[in-house]
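Training component of the fellowship. As part of building independent skills, the fellow (R.M.) carried out the full modelling exercise for a liganded target. The chosen ligand was protoporphyrin IX containing FE. The inputs are recorded below so that the supervisory panel can assess the work.
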Amino acid sequence: MDGCKRRGWKEGGRDDGQAEVWASDLQGRVWAAPARLGISPCPEPGDLNRGRKFGSSVMESRMDQDEVQKPEPGRNTGNHNDSNTDLQVTYTHEEVAFFHLHQTHHFDEFEYPSDQYCKQDLFPKWHLPLKIASIASLLIFIYTFLRDVVHPFVTTNENTFYKIPILVINKVLPVVSITLLALVYLPGILAAGFQLHYGTKYKRFPQWLNGWMLSRKQLGLLSFFFASMHACYSLCYPMRRSYRYKLLNWAYQQVKQKKENAWIEHDVWRMEIYVSLGILGLALLAILAVTSIPSVSHSLTWREFHCIQSKMGYLALLLCTIHALVFAWNKWVDVNQFVWYTPPTFMIAIFLPIIVLLCKSVLLLPCLRKKIQKIRCGWDANTEMNKTQMTSRL
Ligand code: HEM
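Fellow's submitted model of the complex:
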């Protein structure tokens, strides 16, 4: 058995391709814990938050770090010998008491729990992702509003305020969605860079990177939510009255110009390709979202989970990026797209995804990939150096 396999999860390595998954569910860990403690696993919704309150800070910080740096003990490894990895997580008396408390006290919506529970944060893991999504949405909305509504109004006195509810919103949604998706995979790349730089997996990531990695599941789910909304908005384009009037006007213009056929071959291809890619991208995002549900993710082996969350995730990002690239088609070389010297939204949309995809391609180069694999299997550049120094002294 090679070193990597032998170590498996037990050494708590980041053999999980660590930062590349967005379903690092803390919930799974906490909910899986009673079984390991010999307590019947009967969690109630909201146990997680209560757990955070009751659990010692040691537990919190350890879990947060483990979350990123170790595969989940509760996950099916596909190897029964790995069951003893559960022993790796030890629980304090407080934690055991907390799970006992849940057995004896059954809270439901008809009871009002003590003040302690009322003061708890609502959805603490969603705060940062929601803030990022809201700020990005607001900025993109203002940007698009200025370009698509204010600019025509100021320059040609054209009234395009009707665009706000659907057309402007449907620029905000895909841009935010693809940016959030890129933000899911960016920390993985930074973490790989970090490990390559220090030549070890045993050095802890900086706090901000740890926090970012712990938010990947929420960022991914928000990205899926925005993408689904974008698909709904896009598919209702032909239903709009404004579109029907525009279509009639185009037809009238065509008759006036005595044109019999309005077919533009390259435009037809552009649309067929980018809509198809969008649908494929959304379908992959849906699979990623479903497999991030704890009950589903726990039924997968680590390899299956990693394959879906990492490989399929990158594929989804690639498809969505090509979708935006093909949507823009020949607008890439059209200087008229620059309004008030500002670039069009599709350029902004693909900026981060392209950076992430390029960095990932660099990390896939055999020399780097092999080194990362070695590091994640436990190889440590510093101990290796010490060993060579020792042998040279001897
Ligand atoms: C059923 C799936 C999808 C359909 C039918 C669809 C359709 C469309 C349409 C019609 C546009 C042009 C919008 C416009 O005229 O302003 C567009 C643009 C775009 N879509 Fe999608 N899309 C889908 C999925 C996705 C997904 C999953 C993503 C990424 C997460 C995405 C990202 C984008 C981006 C970035 C643009 C460019 C927006 C801009 O700056 O104007 N789309 N899509």
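The panel noted the following from the submitted structure. The two ends are 31 Å apart (CA to CA). The mean pLDDT is 79.
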